Amino acid sequence: MVKTAVLEAFEERQEWLTDLVGEALSDMEIRPMDRWSHWNKVYETKDPTRVSWFQSRPETSLRLIANAGLDPSARILDVGGGTSILVDALLAIGYQQPGVLDVSEEAIQRTRARLATRAEAVEWYVEDVTRFKSPHRWDLWHDRAVLHFLTTEEDQRAYRKVLGRSLAEEGHVVIATFGPEGPGRCSGLDVVQYDVDRMQRLLGEGFELKEWHLEDHVTPSGAIQQFLFCRFFRVSSEVETIVFKNWTAVSSQLFPE
Ligand SMILES: C[S@@+](CC[C@H](N)C(=O)[O-])C[C@H]1O[C@@H](n2cnc3c(N)ncnc32)[C@H](O)[C@@H]1O
Predict the structure, then answer these.
(1) Mean pLDDT of all residues in 13-28
(2) Contact 82/110 with Cβ under 8 angstroms?
(3) Worst-scoring range by mean pLDDT, 1-10, 44-53, 190-199, 227-236?
(4) pLDDT, tens digit, for every residue of 59-88?
């Protein structure tokens, strides 16, 4: 019995090691150029106010971010921010430490240019989110319309892992993806539709769902796209969960009641 618990603990450690080696190997691979070049081309060739995901006011995102009840000094990262005006709005509201990450350098340059001198208050990252190594933790992770482009299990796991190591303990997550009746493709790419259970499974037990709803987005050409918006709160870090689970398993074997 004790042996089983010890073996389980060992297996978890082995999985952690495999992940570590996998990450090191993936860093040696060539950057996923197709993703990078796809999105740069989009932003080089399209009017940002005519792309299907354009919003003149990111109201729902701002409401869910406000519901997290953070101080103005909180660090808020807009993952796959593109040319969204969310960062302008965050600065205008008084958040002092926003960040924007996007795989497209073109999108980041456009957004920086739009903000002019206000851009200095923002942390900018031209990165693929699945490989992002944040220099510090964030209090809130915001993603509107990025996660659903990750169609492989490998990329989804990588996203989840980056989120886990980039988010503060007791951090907040606001994610919007296509909903169960959302489109099957966007920007010429396949996408994944999420319902709230699928989203909860992706994030795991350490994240408590605080609110969610489905919402129709009207594209500039008048099409309707269903989105799922979710807000989660991180209740425990993975490390604590693993240590606690292992200890509970081992102690119940050693000291049966
Ligand atoms: C549909 S747009 C949404 C942009 C913005 N969030 C908004 O709501 O207007 C998707 C954005 O995610 C970026 N993106 C796509 N895949 C990404 C990845 N793997 N890592 C980082 N950014 C990515 C694209 O460059 C693009 O700006």
Answers:
(1) 41
(2) no
(3) 1-10
(4) 999 999 999 999 999 999 999 999 999 999
For ligand 1, the distance from its centroid to the CA atom of residue 236, given in whole angstroms, is 28
Q: List the beta bridge partners of residue 123.
A: 99
The structure's pTM equals 0.84
More confident residue, 28 or 174: 174
pLDDT given at position 32: 62
Contact 78, 122 (CB under 8 A): no
The closest-lying atom of ligand 1 relative to the alpha carbon of residue 40 is: 25
Q: Spell out the residues 6+ positions from residue 141 whose beta carbon is closer than 8 angstroms to its own.
A: 77, 79, 163, 166, 167, 171, 172, 173, 174, 175
- CA–centroid distance, 118 to ligand 1, in Å, is 22
103 lines ligand 1 (CB under 6 A): yes
Rounded to an integer, what distance in angstroms lies between the CA atom of residue 38 and that of residue 24?
Answer: 25
Q: How far is the CA of 187 from the centre of ligand 1 (A)?
A: 11
Domains along the chain with CATH numbers: 49-242 (3.40.50.150)
45 Cβ partners below 8 Å, 6+ apart?
A: none
